[in-house]
């Protein structure tokens, strides 16, 4: 059966008027009438009376069964499309992964498509997007690249890691200024320049330069050193889910946070960009 003719017949059955149905189908009335006659010839039955307009019993049957048939055709097309989809590849910084898993699960369910999560920091995400090894990135740092699209999602607070016996460890929030005399551990600039600079900007806004006694690239190493009393450490709130024995994580009283954004290559655009945007818009971030 010709599906275009079936759709035109169902439109006519809904409107019960050739003129209105032809307008909705962007056809002339004679062209619509010709398509309906061709469908009747294909099926070998009369589907409607024209004056006055009414469906024959065969037309009524086709109206009911035709709707179901078109729904099944659309469902089949969707199943075939989904079968041909590969996994969507998302780059996510390790330090943001705990807070971003609900977002990724939301996308996986909403898209009905597998999502592969690749741990990589923002600069590596940008390289992978340009090389076609990644579809999307969830970046915790600002991206200044004309080839990369960037859409803000939410902010992640910067927090202080203190020894559990520290005088300020009992406070719910810590003013960074109150730590100005403390020795600090800091992520090395060469490890992740944008994050290092983001932390330095927090210190500048607080009104002092930190006394950096050691550079530390990995959170587990920072935990050991902070627990041993070597210094205090700035990190990101998602690290609260990682083990940090002998230490406490405390939010800062100052406004200090990293902007998390969806990033992607602009040309060519990634698969299902409009759907990803729509799903993220429905998520309370």
From TrEMBL:
Q: What cellular component GO annotations does this protein have?
A: protein-DNA complex
Record domain HTH lysR-type: where:
1-58
Provide this UniProt record's keywords sorted from A to Z: DNA-binding, Transcription, Transcription regulation
Record InterPro entries:
LysR_HTH_N (IPR000847), LysR_subst-bd (IPR005119), WH-like_DNA-bd_sf (IPR036388), WH_DNA-bd_sf (IPR036390)
Domain of life where this protein originates:
Bacteria
GO MF annotation, one? DNA-binding transcription factor activity
| UniProt cross-references to SUPFAM superfamilies, sorted A to Z | Periplasmic binding protein-like II, Winged helix' DNA-binding domain
PANTHER family cross-referenced by the UniProt entry: HCA OPERON TRANSCRIPTIONAL ACTIVATOR HCAR, TRANSCRIPTIONAL DUAL REGULATOR HCAR-RELATED
| Entry's family note | Belongs to the LysR transcriptional regulatory family.
Annotated protein name in UniProt: DNA-binding transcriptional regulator, LysR family
**Organism of origin:** Thermus arciformis
């Amino acid at each position: 059966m010709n599906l275009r003719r079936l759709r035109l017949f169902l439109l006519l059955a809904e409107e019960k008027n050739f003129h209105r149905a032809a307008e909705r189908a962007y056809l002339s009335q004679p062209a619509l009438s010709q398509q309906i006659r061709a469908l009747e010839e294909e099926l070998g039955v009369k589907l409607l009376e024209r004056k006055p307009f009414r469906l024959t019993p065969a037309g009524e049957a086709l109206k009911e069964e035709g709707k179901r048939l078109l729904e099944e055709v659309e469902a089949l097309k969707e199943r075939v499309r989904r079968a041909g989809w590969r996994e969507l590849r998302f780059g996510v910084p390790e330090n943001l992964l705990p807070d971003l898993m609900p977002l990724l699960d939301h996308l996986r369910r909403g898209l009905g498509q597998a999502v592969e999560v690749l741990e990589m920091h923002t600069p590596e995400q940008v390289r992978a997007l340009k090389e076609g090894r990644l579809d999307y990135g969830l970046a915790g740092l600002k991206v200044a690249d004309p080839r990369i699209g960037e859409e803000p999602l939410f902010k992640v607070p910067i927090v202080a890691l203190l020894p559990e016996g520290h005088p300020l460890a009992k406070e719910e929030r810590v003013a960074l200024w109150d730590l100005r005399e403390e020795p600090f551990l800091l992520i090395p600039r060469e490890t992740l320049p944008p994050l290092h600079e983001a932390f330095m900007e927090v210190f500048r806004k607080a009104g002092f330069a930190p006394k950096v006694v050691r550079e530390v690239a990995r959170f587990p190493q920072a935990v050991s050193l902070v627990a041993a009393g070597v210094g205090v450490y700035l990190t990101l709130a998602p690290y609260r889910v990682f083990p940090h024995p002998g230490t406490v994580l405390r939010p800062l009283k100052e406004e200090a946070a990293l902007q998390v954004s969806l990033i992607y290559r602009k040309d060519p655009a990634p698969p299902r960009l409009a759907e990803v945007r729509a799903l993220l818009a429905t998520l309370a971030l």
